[in-house]
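We emphasize that the prediction below concerns an isolated chain of 134 residues; any contacts that depend on oligomerization or on bound cofactors are therefore not represented. The input was used exactly as deposited, without trimming of termini.
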Amino acid sequence: MIYVTRMIHFCAAHRLYDATLSEEENRERFGECANLHGHDYTLEVTVAGEPDERTGMLVHLSKLDTIVCERVVDRLDHKNLNVDVPVFSDVVPTIEMLAKYVWEELDGGIPEVSLHRVRIHEDDLTADYYGEAD
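Result of the prediction step, given as a token string:
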């Protein structure tokens, strides 16, 4: 089994805020992150499989880039996650939930390989997601 990881950068803004809580409760729970603020993210997408015997490649990187951009990056880059990404209208857009969102958008959508891991870097914080446990 071979694993290939592609790193892609994007920028987005978010506010860690739970609409079911008061402003004071949100400030207690999320601190300064209850304010709208932005991050430079690094997304790592790791796929697994066996390389093609003719090309020696697991996946053609331009094909992987196109899929990741169409399904994820174009929807997140330079967006307000709370407002512009429908799933985050009811879900606090933490790095953990962002990793899960990316997985759900990519899982099963990359031909000839399986999605192994989604890793997101947000400043000095990193979240890994490997899908639901079987």
